[in-house]
Amino acid sequence: MKFKHKNCSILIDDGTGTVYRDGRLMFKGDAYIAIKTLLQFTDNAEEVKNHFNAQLSMREKSRFQVNDDKAKATKRMKEEAERAKQSFAPQPKTKRRTKSTWEKLTR
Predict the structure, then answer these.
(1) N or C end of the chain, less CB within 10 A?
(2) 3-state DSSP call for residue 96?
(3) Strands 2-5, 8-13: parallel, antiparallel or unpaired by DSSP?
(4) For residues 9-38, average pLDDT
């Protein structure tokens, strides 16, 4: 598939995308990344967004990231709770060592 917008063009073949700007090769690789590169070079032109809307909307967001964020948040909350418990725990009182008379005189 070939698409041209002003001075940029993209050629997508078997999942490989090639982006040209002013006749120069700018990117060759994954088709999705090529589409995003084309959008970047065309300053997010509406015509390009509309043409590739199906491919851009099909891209699935990472599900693991949401779970990782939840796990990090709960871990952080548990750590803060532990620190709070430790700060309120009574500290063992240490006995002060009194100086002997000799130590007071010779200081």
Answers:
(1) C
(2) coil
(3) antiparallel
(4) 94
